[in-house]
# Entry
Amino acid sequence: MTAFHRSALARAGVVALLAAGGLATVAAPAQAADQADLALVPLSYELAKGVTAAKAKPFKFRVDNSRSTVAAKGVSYTADTSQLKRNKVGVVVPDGCQVQGRTFTCQLGDLPAGTSEDFGIPLFSTGGRGDAGTLVVTITSTTTDPERGDNKVEHAITVAKPGYDLTSWVQDVQANVVVNGVQGDDPDLRPVRRGETVPLDWAVYNDGSRKATGIFFGLTLPAGVTFAQKPEGCLEQEFQGKQQLFCEDAGAVVKPGEYYTADVRVTVGDDVTEPVLHEGDLFAYGLDGAEGQPEEEPEMASSAQRKAFTEVDVVDNHTTFEAFVDLTAQPTPTPTATPTGTPTPGATTSPATGGGGAGGGGLPVTGVQAGLIGGIGGLILLAGGALLVLSRRRKVVLVAPSDEKSTD
# Structure
């Protein structure tokens, strides 16, 4: 998925409007051959009390074009903030969007058939907990759309207690990706040649108001893609023909506005025959409620703290991505293998600003595959226990920006 979410965060000169549900399954009704059939699905539901405008949480939405046979051209979304409660939440308008009163419209670009796109609308806390009103979001396209009533969402927003709030993002597997926390400002993207190895840009952001102590994440590659470089000490396996990693870093501490990542490189197989490889997957959870003793305890939470640190919104901990393949080029000769299992500095921080994304219109991702998610749910139970007894842990480096201030 391309990251219109991070570029939507606060930066100098943007307009702030003080105003201010699981994943939906999209059916596939018959439609005209020249129509795109879009659907809008909300992925985020709650905002932690105490989230500031400078570290606003991008509330995730998905524009789904998976039931279409044609691309949706000129896709845009319009957000109406007039029904949000000003004493509860505020909204940061992404750069490049057109503002009219308490409504703004942002361009997402083209959306190929059979795919979907995630974007984020940044919200922040202005008061106490409770019902924060309704955010009304509508998607449109210059391509004919039958508009079956699923192009508009009236999404109830809730401000929850203070806590950490992990949100996962992954850039699609493409060549010339800029590894920068999935900011979506990659200028020269192209499909990957068969046999080519490229970096994977992925990040787990803490969009809450408290630090997260310890990270557990699972990464699944699309079928036909394999790991060339990966974090040390992860549990590896194959699931439904796809390569998977389950990793634990009990010593990681991710403060609000920071993100966690690690060096990962992937290789597209020589025998791939499809231009788009579907359903890569990333999910992440904090370890504050996990059983067992971590090897590193720089931020060991007390019993009272564990209750306070309970995650605010777990639905957007999960995201999907795809691999785009250039089938016209001859397979790339296999280079000298990069040793796997090499420790790499992992957790990185990011100020709550972004690249040039909101009107970029990059390559999109598909919708969520229910079977894959269901399988992963069961695998978490198996992998979690195994990871807790792994003797080797990846060390991480947390680099705070110069203006970083703790909200704890």
